[in-house]
């Protein structure tokens, strides 16, 4: 018989742990009722699909209303009519402080549209029903990938990506994928939403690939070994319309619990499950009147080991080596800190949010909007809300900063034609004049020919990466001299705020009394000695 | 000269538990105020609230006791002899004169004490209680109150009263040491008994 050495014992123990974890995770994964349909048995899904739209046609042969439902949603239209501000927003219209605008860069940007072949932002998405991409949300195999530069199509031939990397992206096995469709999950939603801004974790700060399989410390709801929520558990859907918006956030949900039969079953707020007074301590529940749950329950963002971009300076882009080659500089952690195509980058991990009053309404500086150039930074978006507004609460934000091109004559932001194998795109030609002029020519947005770079900010509400409750902020995170909410207007925070004159006079009174008492005693001792003598 | 019970058992219990609670309230209160960080804000708030409720309960009992026993009469202000006491502390004590006031079971506080304790009971304490309750129940303020009063003002009043309380305590504690010996005034507050001279009762 072999000897049981300590090393063996440790191996056995680790093996046991891993096995129990695996069993645990398998059990935890069972969060949905078993399906009544095995798609691999469907005749219409047995065929050899030549293209992705053919799969959509097969889907629609049973799910007859799905395409028309999808086409009504912002996921499809990339349009959002803002009821509060009257602005027409949506991905097809807004500018952001990352890649600028979609227009003139379509084949790259529309690789995240839930359709196939939207090549011109000035036109609506393709009309045919087969242009709806069912698989990007409903693939359960993880094998379906929209190729990054094909206007939303997956590749049909092996292609190298990124270019020059030697890595090949193979066409997805459409038949296999079609036979294993199911409800959306963190990976399918994440295939676009984790990578907003052009890479993992770049844009949001609270959404990145670490949420595909998080632990409870990263996200207690999505914890792969615990509750294992999919995105749609909170972002509930109604006829393919998904709850939740970053243009009009439900910043203060006063409806509370959502029960069947009691109004809309659309729920993307904490309160829709937890109600507005979930704490055993009344004082904490009272805080929820003025403070969003997220402010205390998300102590930091970008906590999953994926850095988020905090700074993007386009003004330095275009620098090349003496031989005219592109420069790509990385820091010690292997993050790109300068690229000729995009300029300078700054990153953040485990970032303490910025806090601000927020009533949910987000206003944008749109490309036609003239702005005050004398007062940078310019808010590419601006959040509304104030201490006096009963609909406002204090919310946590990622504040993205950077520099973007603007027209020094018209005082407007500028569309930038960065992507494309043509002779004007910035990423190919490194010439802002050409890139800006071409974007203007193609879009009709005015460009005087004069440009400079303006510092900009953008506010991104933080709402994901909620750890277990024991990791929520301590009172003193705000109620202290070194308060997280320091400088926030309209609040008196015990422990942080005080009136310096009241304190000065108060302590002076205490001190004078003490001194008086001491002098009285000294005088008494001396006088007694004199009286004795 | 005889040994007489000046401070009854309840009175002593009331005095010393009140003292303990007030010290706890001052210590936790100034942590909540942000003057230092020893216990953590959360624990300071918990203890402060707990001590406040305890003191309120104690006060309810004390008020009941004062009313039912007639002890409240000891706090009736009087100007008779007030100047003499003030003069003693300001001048007389330095000349080696003796205290002009003699404690009796009928009148255990001298006129200056009466005035100081009455001020403590009718001015400082009510301001602390009312502002403290408003502070504690800030989350439950009715709209009418929110429109007319701010937490900031309540906090300032509460803090100002706390400073006044500290001034009182320093003065009070010091005055107790001004007896024949340093502890001669404190002793009856602990044992209840003091050597007193009975007023002349002529039959």
UniProtKB/TrEMBL annotation, chain A:
<keyword id="KW-0812">Transmembrane</keyword>
<keyword id="KW-1133">Transmembrane helix</keyword>
<dbReference type="InterPro" id="IPR023155">
    <property type="entry name" value="Cyt_c-552/4"/>
</dbReference>
<keyword id="KW-0732">Signal</keyword>
<dbReference type="InterPro" id="IPR024673">
    <property type="entry name" value="Octahem_Cyt_c"/>
</dbReference>
<feature type="transmembrane region" description="Helical">
    <location>
        <begin position="505"/>
        <end position="526"/>
    </location>
</feature>
<dbReference type="InterPro" id="IPR051829">
    <property type="entry name" value="Multiheme_Cytochr_ET"/>
</dbReference>
<dbReference type="InterPro" id="IPR036280">
    <property type="entry name" value="Multihaem_cyt_sf"/>
</dbReference>
<feature type="domain" description="Cytochrome c-552/4">
    <location>
        <begin position="58"/>
        <end position="138"/>
    </location>
</feature>
<protein>
    <submittedName>
        <fullName>Cytochrome c</fullName>
    </submittedName>
</protein>
<dbReference type="Pfam" id="PF13435">
    <property type="entry name" value="Cytochrome_C554"/>
</dbReference>
<dbReference type="Pfam" id="PF11783">
    <property type="entry name" value="Cytochrome_cB"/>
</dbReference>
<keyword id="KW-0472">Membrane</keyword>
Automatic annotation (TrEMBL), chain B:
<keyword id="KW-0813">Transport</keyword>
<feature type="transmembrane region" description="Helical">
    <location>
        <begin position="20"/>
        <end position="43"/>
    </location>
</feature>
<keyword id="KW-0472">Membrane</keyword>
<dbReference type="InterPro" id="IPR011577">
    <property type="entry name" value="Cyt_b561_bac/Ni-Hgenase"/>
</dbReference>
<keyword id="KW-1003">Cell membrane</keyword>
<feature type="transmembrane region" description="Helical">
    <location>
        <begin position="153"/>
        <end position="175"/>
    </location>
</feature>
<feature type="transmembrane region" description="Helical">
    <location>
        <begin position="115"/>
        <end position="138"/>
    </location>
</feature>
<keyword id="KW-0349">Heme</keyword>
<dbReference type="InterPro" id="IPR016174">
    <property type="entry name" value="Di-haem_cyt_TM"/>
</dbReference>
<comment type="similarity">
    <text>Belongs to the HupC/HyaC/HydC family.</text>
</comment>
<keyword id="KW-1133">Transmembrane helix</keyword>
<feature type="domain" description="Cytochrome b561 bacterial/Ni-hydrogenase">
    <location>
        <begin position="7"/>
        <end position="192"/>
    </location>
</feature>
<keyword id="KW-0812">Transmembrane</keyword>
<keyword id="KW-0408">Iron</keyword>
<keyword id="KW-0479">Metal-binding</keyword>
<keyword id="KW-0249">Electron transport</keyword>
<dbReference type="Pfam" id="PF01292">
    <property type="entry name" value="Ni_hydr_CYTB"/>
</dbReference>
<protein>
    <submittedName>
        <fullName>Cytochrome b561</fullName>
    </submittedName>
</protein>
<feature type="transmembrane region" description="Helical">
    <location>
        <begin position="50"/>
        <end position="68"/>
    </location>
</feature>
<dbReference type="InterPro" id="IPR051542">
    <property type="entry name" value="Hydrogenase_cytochrome"/>
</dbReference>
<dbReference type="InterPro" id="IPR000516">
    <property type="entry name" value="Ni-dep_Hydgase_cyt-B"/>
</dbReference>
């Amino acid at each position: 018989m072999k000897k049981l050495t300590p090393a063996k014992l440790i191996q056995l123990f680790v093996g046991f742990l891993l096995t129990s974890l695996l069993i645990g995770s398998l059990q935890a994964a069972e969060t949905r009722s078993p399906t009544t349909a095995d798609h691999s048995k469907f005749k219409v899904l047995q065929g050899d699909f030549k293209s992705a739209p053919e799969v959509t046609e097969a889907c629609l042969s049973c799910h007859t209303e799905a395409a028309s439902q999808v086409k009504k949603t912002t996921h499809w239209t990339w349009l959002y009519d803002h009821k509060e501000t009257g602005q027409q927003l949506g991905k097809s219209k807004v500018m952001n402080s990352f890649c600028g605008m979609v227009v003139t860069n379509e084949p790259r940007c529309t690789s995240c549209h839930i359709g196939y072949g939207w090549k011109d932002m000035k036109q609506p998405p393709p009309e045919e029903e087969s242009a709806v991409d069912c698989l990007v949300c409903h693939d359960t195999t993880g094998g379906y990938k929209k190729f990054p530069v094909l206007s939303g199509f997956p590749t049909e031939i092996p292609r190298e990506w990124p270019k020059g990397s030697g890595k090949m992206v193979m066409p997805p096995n459409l038949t296999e994928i079609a036979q294993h469709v199911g409800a959306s999950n963190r990976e399918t939603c994440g295939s676009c939403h984790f990578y907003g801004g052009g890479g993992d974790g770049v844009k949001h700060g609270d959404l990145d690939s670490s949420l595909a399989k998080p632990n409870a410390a990263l996200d207690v709801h999505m914890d792969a070994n615990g509750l294992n929520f999919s995105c749609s558990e909170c972002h509930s859907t109604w006829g393919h319309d998904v709850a939740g918006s970053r243009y009009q956030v439900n910043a203060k949900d006063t409806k509370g619990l959502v029960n069947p039969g009691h109004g809309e079953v659309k729920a993307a707020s904490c309160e829709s499950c937890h109600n507005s007074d979930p704490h055993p301590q009344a004082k904490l529940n009272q805080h929820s009147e003025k403070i969003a749950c997220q402010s205390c329950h998300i102590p930091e963002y970008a906590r999953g080991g994926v850095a988020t971009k905090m700074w993007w300076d386009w003004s330095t882009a275009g620098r090349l080596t003496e031989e005219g080659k592109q420069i790509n500089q990385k820091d010690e952690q292997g993050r790109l800190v300068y690229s000729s195509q995009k300029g300078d980058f700054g990153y953040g991990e485990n970032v303490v949010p910025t806090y601000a009053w927020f009533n949910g309404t987000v206003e944008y500086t749109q490309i036609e909007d003239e702005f005050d150039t004398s007062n940078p930074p310019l808010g590419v978006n601006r959040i509304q809300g104030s201490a006096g507004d009963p609909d406002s609460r204090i919310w946590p934000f990622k504040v993205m900063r950077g520099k973007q091109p603007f027209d020094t004559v018209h005082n407007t932001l500028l569309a930038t034609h960065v992507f494309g194998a043509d002779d004007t795109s910035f990423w190919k030609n490194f010439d802002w004049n050409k890139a800006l002029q071409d974007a203007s020519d193609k879009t009709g947005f005015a460009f005087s020919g004069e440009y400079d770079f303006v510092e900009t900010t953008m506010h991104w509400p933080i709402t994901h990466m909620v750890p277990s409750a024991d990791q929520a902020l301590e009172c003193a995170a705000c109620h202290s001299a070194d308060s997280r909410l320091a400088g926030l207007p309209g609040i008196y925070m015990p422990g942080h705020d005080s009136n310096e004159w009241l304190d000065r006079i108060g302590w002076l009174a205490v001190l004078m009394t003490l001194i008086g008492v001491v002098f009285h005693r000294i005088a008494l001792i001396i006088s007694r000695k004199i009286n004795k003598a | 000269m005889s040994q007489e019970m000046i401070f009854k058992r309840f009175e002593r219990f009331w005095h010393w538990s009140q003292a303990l609670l007030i010290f706890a309230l001052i210590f936790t209160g100034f942590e909540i105020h942000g003057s230092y960080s020893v216990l953590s804000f959360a624990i300071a708030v918990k203890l402060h609230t707990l001590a406040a409720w305890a003191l309120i309960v104690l006060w309810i009992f004390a008020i009941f006791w004062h009313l039912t026993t007639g002890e409240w009469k000891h706090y009736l202000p009087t100007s008779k002899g007030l100047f003499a006491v003030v003069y003693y502390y300001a001048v007389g004590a330095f000349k080696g004169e003796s205290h002009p006031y003699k404690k009796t079971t009928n009148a255990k506080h001298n006129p200056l004490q009466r005035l100081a304790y009455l001020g403590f009971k009718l001015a400082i304490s009510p301001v602390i209680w009312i502002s403290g309750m408003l502070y504690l129940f800030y989350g439950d303020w009715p709209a009418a109150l929110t429109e007319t009063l701010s937490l900031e003002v309540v906090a300032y009043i509460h803090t100002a009263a706390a400073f006044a309380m500290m001034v009182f305590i320093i003065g009070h504690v010091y005055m107790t040491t001004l007896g024949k010996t340093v502890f001669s005034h404190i002793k009856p507050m602990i044992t209840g008994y003091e050597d007193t001279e009975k007023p002349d009762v002529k039959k």
